[in-house]
Design goal:
alpha/beta, Rossmann fold, binds S-adenosylmethionine
Length: 400
């Protein structure tokens, strides 16, 4: 399959040639996002927000952070009440993007529970240097809280107690793409094709690894997921988030007691591995436009793949996490009091009409079932000898 618009830049031609002429799709996704000199994230070319490549919930306004902070404060107070005597509670954000969520969470926690802040530190875990530079500009102005950047390996050596947040980061983890054709499964690869002196990218079929075959068998025997589902078209494609098992294992080593909240594009296995989803869930984003052509503009656009809920939960469980529950973002934010935020706008309408309308639009976008409202919140807990009872306000019935 050749897409003449999927031109391959020189740096990527070299990488593919160095690897013998083709690379796995997993390697391709890792390079175009995280290659230290050319990746979309590592160079910091990516911009998140209304004027950037795509919006995330915290990039719309600080309302997402103010609502999420209510849940984080509940968890931290529960930890305090349970008798854990850590001097410091850590709020760890993995993949902090522009740094706005970290900053706005700290500001909101300072408002809601000022006494907690003096017992807290903020830890930012960012893979890419370009993004870390951008985060520093946003977070360095915070006062009254200790903050630092770290990485998962260092945190494993000095584990923490507290709350870990991963908002829209797992969808950016490289995935394996699997192609089902003629009753066989292939690992999707990416190769070069020369057309009129220019190199384009094309998909090729590679032999599946033993890890891929194990994933298919385990999904069937442990989770009852049928691969492939009956009635698929020829060359039905899907994804496997193969880095998740290791990620949950590492995270279970960095958190002694506390909770982990994953917020991301996700769906149940029945919808994910479905006959009608014949090209998987991967999509590319650039300048606020979604593009199904995932080989276009390598290193200049984002790539994102949904999570399968059952597989994600299973990887957490086998790595020592307890699953507290999951819900859609719209429900979670309403349970945390989003409708009160909307009612309170009435007071500001008369003084600043356009400000109030903008804020109302941002609040509604957070719960829009056709957009961010469909994101899933998955919460896990880790306890080490303590009988932790963490309250999950975000799972309760929405309050009006
Ligand atoms: C889509 S952005 C999400 C940003 C932010 N959480 C938000 O909601 O606005 C993904 C972020 O995760 C970072 N990232 C990607 N893979 C990562 C990994 N394995 N560990 C830590 N950060 C990672 C990227 O560099 C980027 O900052």
């Amino acid at each position: 399959m050749i897409d003449p618009t999927a031109r391959c830049p020189k740096w990527l031609i070299d990488r593919i040639r160095d690897s013998g002429g083709s690379i796995s799709f997993y390697k391709y996704m890792d390079l175009v996002l995280n290659d230290p000199e050319n990746g979309f994230y590592s160079t910091g070319k990516l911009k998140i927000g209304k004027d950037g490549d795509f919006c995330t919930s915290p990039s719309l306004s600080n309302d997402f952070a103010r609502l999420l902070a209510i849940q984080i404060v509940d968890w931290l107070l529960d930890l305090e009440k349970s008798g854990i005597e850590d001097e410091l509670f850590s709020l760890v954000e993995i993949g902090p993007g522009e740094g706005t969520l970290s900053r706005d969470l700290i500001l909101a926690i300072t408002d809601i529970a000022p006494t907690l802040i003096s017992k807290m530190e903020l830890v930012l875990v960012e893979l890419n240097v370009g993004m870390r530079k951008r985060q520093k500009k946003v977070v360095n102005n915070l006062e009254g809280i200790k903050f630092r950047w770290s990485n998962i390996e260092d945190l494993t050596l000095r584990p923490v107690t507290g709350v870990i947040i991963a908002n829209e980061v797992l969808d950016a983890f490289p995935v394996e793409r699997l192609v089902f054709a003629e009753n066989k499964v292939f690992r999707q690869g990416v190769s070069l094709r020369k057309i009129n002196d220019e190199y384009s990218l094309e998909f090729v079929d590679l032999r599946p690894t033993s890890a891929i075959m194990r994933f298919l068998q385990d999904s069937n025997s442990l989770l009852n997921i049928e691969f492939p589902p009956k009635g698929i078209c020829d060359r039905w494609v899907t994804e496997w988030h193969c880095d998740l098992p290791t990620w949950f294992e590492q995270l279970s080593k960095i958190l002694i007691n506390g909770s982990l909240l994953v917020v991301d594009y996700a769906m149940e296995s029945k919808r994910y591995y479905n006959v009608i989803r014949e090209d998987g869930t991967l999509i590319s984003y650039r300048n606020q436009k979604a593009n199904p052509n995932i080989l276009k503009d390598p290193g200049l656009s984002d790539l994102t793949a949904h999570l399968c809920i059952e597989s994600t939960v299973n990887y957490a469980l086998i790595n020592g996490w307890k699953f507290m529950g999951e819900t859609r973002q719209g429900q979670a934010l309403l349970a945390l009091g989003l409708s009160k935020f909307i009612y309170s706008l009435q007071n500001t309408f008369s003084q600043d009409l356009s400000g109030a309308l903008n804020r109302r639009e941002s609040l509604l976008r957070l719960v829009d079932p056709m957009g961010l409202g469909e994101f899933r919140w998955l919460a896990f807990q880790k306890d080490n000898g303590f009988d932790l009872m963490l309250s999950n306000r975000f799972l309760e019935e929405p309050i009006s």
